[in-house]
Write a structure and sequence with these properties.
InterPro entries: Alginate_Permeability_Chnl. This is Alginate export domain-containing protein. It comes from Thermodesulfatator autotrophicus. The chain has two helices and 22 strands. The protein has 469 residues and is mainly beta. The chain has one domain: Porin (Beta Barrel), CATH 2.40.160.100. A hairpin with a 5-residue loop joins strand 13 and strand 14.
Amino acid sequence: MEILGIKKFRKIKEEVDMGKKLLMVLAAFFLLCSGAYAVEVKFHGVMWNLVGAGNNNDIFTVHQPSGKSNYYLPVYGDVYGVKKGLPTYTDELSGWYGLTKARFRAEVMTDDGLAKLVWGQEVGTVGWGDGGNGFSYSGDGRNVETRFVYTQFKLEPFGLPGYVRVGLQPTKINTWVWTETAPGLTYHYKDDCLKLMAGFYRVEADNNALLDGSEAWVLKADYKVDDKTTLGGFFIYHDMQDNGFTVAGNPASPSDYYIGFTGSTTIDPVMLAWDLIYLGGETKIENMDDVDRSAWFARLTAGFQVNEQFKVTGTVAYASGDDDINDEDADNFLSIDVDVPIGIAFFKDSMLADCDMFFSEAPYFAHYGYTGFILDGTYQIDDKSKIRGAFIWHRTAEDVEWTDNSGNSHKDKDMGYEFAFWYDYQYNKNVSLRVEGTYLIAGDALNGLANDGDADDFYYVGTGVKFKF
């Protein structure tokens, strides 16, 4: 995405004409076969169009995506080209912009309801005027990508409960660890009390995916104790062997594991929800000392329904950071691939973020971690409209250290105070309108991110339309 010098975030497919023709052929095939072969075809989709403006636009240009590109291993510095320090942004880059993004999903189910094929395509966010990606004169850019494609079938014919899903599919394991898509094979089971998922993902491989590569084994369970309480847990073993990591030219192979406990309950009149996650593991490096990983993430939310129209919630979130980058213990928490919903200024709770404009996908600032205090209120005005506001104090878990332009050293944890708002209007059952915005009073630690070493307060305001069917 090239807007006001903004970096490109999404990979753009190279063969767009072929992709368009393939979509047309498959759509025609689905329609013809729905009668001849007695399958049920459903189409779903969503499109966002947003116009936004602000005085610090570069901070929203994806400085910290999650996944392998941000595997922070502080003691050895750069891994996958990402520095062990904070990513920087260009301060005071102001202006307005327009963004468009669309997703399309086709589901083809057999007439007996036992199996279905799901294929999702996406026009990754493109900025208005970006001719290289088709948003200039006459269009016709390269901007279509595969979001997921999988087959799902029930085990009922074999006398077994549940179903199997195979292919590129959503993970949705935990909001703070892994929610995005990955290719693999998973088993799913659900009854009135128990929800279970177990699976295997091959997230990266060598030699056209024929050799071992980065793999993950997952087990997740949620149990409904009663109408008010649900308890859950998950385990992930993430073996990133043969993944191309190098440290000082030496091959590195991280192997991490996550153990998570989740839950929610209501103790009238308060609703509680929580996550407690431990990240452990080891990174083996040829010709160098290995690095041990030991990190934590915790989140507690308490909500109170004041009346039928007004609800208020308070949240504390913590991701551990590394307090000594010179030892061989990595204490900073890492997510695998997520989109965390913490405000607008830094994370992904906005239509702006839906359109791939944000500072970070993951709940931390580099290896310094994160501590967030969030007060959130939602007021339902009527059947069609609601307004929401939030105050968020953003901090790092460990001190950010930086040197200003005069050569003076500083350290601090305060990233700033955010005041955010969202107004939603339900135009009809398919179309909703949004006005949103945020103002951040910059904290001292934000100076470590600003390219001029002197972070300014900043604002963003946007309005958009979402069409969903």
